[in-house]
Design brief:
8 copies of one chain form a homooctamer.
Chain A lengths: L10 H5 L4 E3 L5 H13 L4 E4 L3 H14 L7 E3 L4 E4 L11 E6 L5 H12 L4 E5 L8 H4 L2 H4 L4 E6 L5 H8 L4 E5 L11 H8 L6 E3 L5 H16 L20
Parallel strand pairs in A: 1-2, 5-6, 5-7, 7-8, 8-9
Antiparallel strand pairs in A: 2-4, 3-4
Helix pairs in contact in A: 2-3, 4-9
């Protein structure tokens, strides 16, 4: 009754994104198998929420399987694995900046950056500009004005995206952080604050969802440059057995 | 101790949006006063969540004040007031489609459409394509593919934006609806479902927040066409007394 | 089985505050009776959350009872009644400023101001400085620096007290507002945001609790000027029947 | 004060189901003792939520007690133990299909399958057909049409049962999964979404409750084939001491 | 911008149910229009949650439109409207019993009964057998044993379905009621209790969802008698424009 | 399909209490019918949560039905109706005191008192002893020491029962009140505080449940004096049709 | 800054209970010190929620301190420690029965039994009579009728106390259990169900609070036999320094 | 992509407080680096929520880096680190007392005391005066009357600050504790109780937030003695690059 995961390999032609593998729940051998399948299918493979120990185990498994095989890269600060080599940066796609309030937001910010990097998007981090010391943000306004899309990560009360969206005209994607204690533990206070924001046009993703924010930014960049499906027509409505292996 | 509202008239040059007036909490005379101020300042004024009775009261007040004054338009299906005339549609800005699951989502969908219309954006409604009868959505996929941005309103379990974002590559802004009863009353089930979505890159706004979704779409369209601040430089950081009356 | 309310007339000598009457739950004749008792006991009487209709009914009752009796004042913008005349302002007590984010916070802000005014405290309102248009707050920083205590009211995401407490050194008492819809309806999002605040030393009171914030400010002012109990010693622990009528 | 568990051995004749033992909370020696009692009473014993270590400990205990004793089977992918041999499949009972959205749902799906297998029901798994890649589900519609009852497991936003119940006429039992993070952590978002479903006639069980879904399916199959109590009449209302040891 | 509702008229051939119209949110003229469309399409029309006043208004509108038109029936105890005449009872489909704990559950129980009646199902009500006086339920066990499916409505702590499912082998669909006060107000305590039930195989629908419980029972009855789609094949996956008007 | 309520007339011999009718949800004609049935069965009838208008309607209906019929008493301060005459006070049963924190708790306190009075229990009210002015409670300690059971009603933070149970040895039944605003609205803060109490042996009933607290006190008084079932033996387990009309 | 705990040694004369030590949060050396203080003061010491390892550590510490010192008893099935010897059973106080639904409730039931045993109360356990197999409870009704007070522990949906209180006239104290998963995890579903109970006069304590239920039962037994404070009068209101060491 | 934390070194001149480092989320090497930066900048460094193991690791790292370097002090009872030497007590600032209900509140109380001590404030602890034994608090009223500000920590139902604020006129800052089980687990019951308090002028901080309460007290003391910013003017609004290193 062993079941390999059924990958959604049509995702890239359909919506322009590779399938990311959520690593937290999966065992090393499951991740290794999926990575092989994705690489074999010509995809850039991204695994999120991988602990250092699990990353090492995956690396050993891949190395044992195909010595000198697909190069696996571990991004420990982002808790991510990628394989094979990352695609080149496409400057024309536009630029995303990932803004954080404090040290505890860095991992999720880097997850967003890696996820965009997997799609060739140029991404910068603008960190530690929390609203308790407002001048740190105000000092960087001109820098932030250069971005095409802003991803803003904040825990605690989650006020940073509200302040940013009140000052700047770009799309702002807010990412609530699960850091904190008491009412902010788990990120719900930040999430509610972002949804309730008095700044117009702020959008929100799930708590700690750096990957999701990155994909939302990618949709915007694709809309900007005119994403076009490849010529192989995807028959979503009536996709028959013959279309897929 | 009477206090007129202090309008944020710098909002349009700063972030490209007019200040919308949330009418639910305000009395007719307050709304009338704010409308006059906004129109006097050369802005397009938008008031949301206005009941028919309150709309009529505002109209009477404005008419009494300045007979033959600024033309006030009531959009009863969207619960909105606008004044004066709406700006011309700017076809180059791109096109937004507002998708709904059922009849109960129509008012919020229309609020979003009016809010975009106030900024010259061309908006279409694609209604009653809820996931319980999936073919209704699948039949309209090619139509939806024409949009630059999709706003998807859904109540109940809120699954529609997930299905849409799994099929199409554009930016998808999900709006949970407060309609329903039991666990779906108030819109929280739909909100949670949208945030928890398994479709990558879905973003979410507050429950019933048609205006907010519209402004998020506007930010994306502006990013697409390259929003540029007007020449009058806004000194956000050190805005002195001389800049503002 | 009719029971008159048992007033806590020792409150002023014990903790320096008059007992406020929460009017929302009480009928006009109950309020009128309590007002008479308080005035007869030489207290300044304050009733909060009184609708215009109920205020008029109380006035009629008091007038019928003692024509030319204790002067009752209705403060409709604060939903409050006071009687008899308010005490003179005591400049030496210090100055409180009540800061609000938007129009919907005005009633609660005025309730706080009236409650302080009943104790002779000089109070100013600084309104409509919400964080979505940050310059409105930054423009008033020098003014706010003059206050001894700041009460900051905000609904929606409730970020304003966080920003204020990050910029200024005074005691900041945050009052979450119940205004809003979706996740901000009822004020819980604002409350959580204020408790989770990243600004150090922010304190919070219950949603819409303008009176409570005022009393917290009064405690601080009293601590500042050295509140001293009157000479009549209150025997809290063993207060016998002889001490109280 | 040692207390052996009092088993409900009347359950099978009364409602057609064996008592399952919830293993998560119990120690190995408790599970071993209950297994012996159930096997001695002629029942098929099922223990759910058993970790690999606990399963091994139970096996050791049973082996020590009665070498060559009742054959214990460990189903690690379902976290279940069964003893003795499973009954033969009864093709006439009908067929259940267990549908899952993603890899993280497999354990609970298998728990449901084992629980049905313990009652002789033929069960198939249809896995990884989550709604983010809708064609995977649409490709299997004809297969699903063969089932008499559908159990649909989904985490995240939990939309899969809604889509299935909108497309197919069979009884659909939805099982929310506890996988996920942020708002989907613990399974509450999926649960709410399933209860709020816009698809008519969807029913829901507790989060991760594969066993419960299986028993609900068994009730339906029994209703289908006409479950009849055995001739030994159960005196539920006045069951006297003589009926039970 | 007037939009008629887009009815899902394929629902009956697809899943064997007519589309019910949720009347609470709709205005009389909207309901009247939908009723006409459904009747014109040859469907049995069911409108739920209609107040007496709204029912009268709908009747007037229909009468004005087509005097002597489709016979509209008002079921005030169920808050429902149906049109035209109900189909004959099909004894072979099996029998549903709707069990209630107390007087406050009667409306929802009747909504379930009417919804089943619209599909020709024979339904009985077994009322006021709440668990606080257990003998009332025990006295009716033999009666309940006759049902093919049991729908059990209960408010307060919602224990009734648990007791029923522990005593009887049939499918039991639990409907939590919103009646009550304090922790039971809104029906959440009953809902949680039903989901947490220690009785195996209990399934649950949304609070007050009598219609949903009826449709779940209908799915079970259809599975029992072998629901077969009509010969007109529904092309769900690739439904082209030609298939639908 | 008209269904009279099935009363649980065995309740008094079984557990020593009459069935109370929860009037909030019922219409005047339903209440009148139940009252007649209860009085005809020789019971003391108690209806709770009856508005003044509904009480008058019930009185009119009863008077029309049987002029000079069973004397109905309206207790407006308790929102209760009783019929026929109340039984005599039985001094030997012991004495209950109902303690309240403030004016808003009086209605529920009186509901408890009436419910006990219907069973012949002597009950006193000790009101307005909230913990914000602690001496009011301390002054009455010797009085409270006379009670056999204490029912303590409190809203807001609900601290009063904790303080009482820390000072006195009797059974203390805490009743949270739904009065208040913000976090105390609906009574949940008080409920949680009472359940979390640091005072040992405090028990809690549902929010506003004066009747429930009274019945809990009655159980205690009955245990004290040795409640004995009447000679007519109630066959709870096997109650046959012959036992009940 | 080392602080020994300040014990409330007046508790027994004041309210008839010894202070129990909540062991979960305390370290072994803290528990040992408190035990010594309590024993030295002539009290029966009870420590709850002590793991086996912590119990052993406390035993070692006490033995090291005073070899042959106060006899410490470990009750592992109740997670409790007691010292010195337990007092003799006082048959005249009455009898408490602790009823449980399933195996997972045994630890808390035993905690209640030990806590009562520390006060000389005779307590019996009646276990595994959950409502999913109702006859198990009905078989024991006559036994339960012998108790003066019933403590009923139940997890999952928590229906057992409701059924018991509907059948028997004694005081029933309900204890919700934290066992379970999904909606029953943590015990909230059981707690809500017990508070919402349709059985009159049920009272509830905090989740898993066996000690609290025991003390509530003790208050009832004390009320039954006429608890009298000892002759040394406790001056609660004005307790001066001279009264306490 | 290594990012050192960007410290807010302007905080002391701006609002009179040093930046505290929340240690729970940070690794030892991150804490060590921040400590060095703060000490190098001439600040008193405070790290909160540091486990003993992490504290030792930080000490080792600092010692390795600069042998004989800045003296690091570990306050294990407060889970805090400070460096370098603490400033002298400034008696003129006034006196804070930190009041606790029970043993479990001591760590947070000590965190508050250390945080105040870092700013030269004289702080005393008044412990174990929980309301279940009220005389312990009443015995210390005269002592508490000496404080300029009261910080009151309480878990469980959180009633202590309410009782204190009802008896004393000073500013009272309530700190809810996360200790407890069932409804008090995590501190939410205490938090809600404090916010809902019937005592006027109580303010609240986040659960377990000893540092926050200390900073709120510091703001009050600063307001009392007239906090004055240093001569170096902070240009918050237009802080240019030249102003900051």
């Amino acid at each position: 009754m062993s079941t390999p995961a059924h990958l959604d390999l049509d995702r890239r032609p359909r919506i322009g994104m590779v399938e990311a593998v959520w690593g937290q729940d999966k065992q090393a051998h499951q991740i290794a198998a999926i990575l092989c399948d994705l690489v074999a299918a010509g995809e850039t493979a991204l695994v999120t929420r991988v602990s250092p120990g699990k990353a090492a185990a995956v690396a050993r498994l891949l190395q044992a399987q195909t010595p000198g095989g697909p190069p696996l890269t571990h991004h420990p600060e982002a808790r991510c694995l990628t394989a094979p080599a990352l695609p080149p940066i496409q400057q024309g796609m536009g630029r995303v900046m990932v803004v954080t309030g404090g040290t505890s937001d860095h991992v999720v910010a880097r997850e967003a950056a890696i996820a965009l990097r997997c799609h060739g998007v140029h991404t910068s981090l603008v960190e530690d500009v929390g609203v308790a010391g407002l001048h740190r943000l105000l000092d960087r306004l001109e820098l932030l004005r250069e971005a095409n899309v802003l991803i803003v990560c904040a825990g605690m009360e989650g006020a940073l995206p509200t302040v940013v969206a009140g000052l700047l005209p770009q799309p702002v994607i807010a990412v609530p952080m699960s850091v904190g204690y008491g009412v902010s533990a788990g990120g719900n206070a930040a999430l509610q604050g972002m949804l309730a924001s008095c700044a117009p046009g702020l959008t929100v993703v799930n708590i700690d969802n750096g990957y999701g924010a990155a994909m939302a930014a990618l949709r915007i960049l694709n809309a900007r440059v005119g994403f076009r499906e490849p010529t192989r027509e995807i028959d979503v409505k009536g996709a028959g057995a013959g279309d897929r292996p």
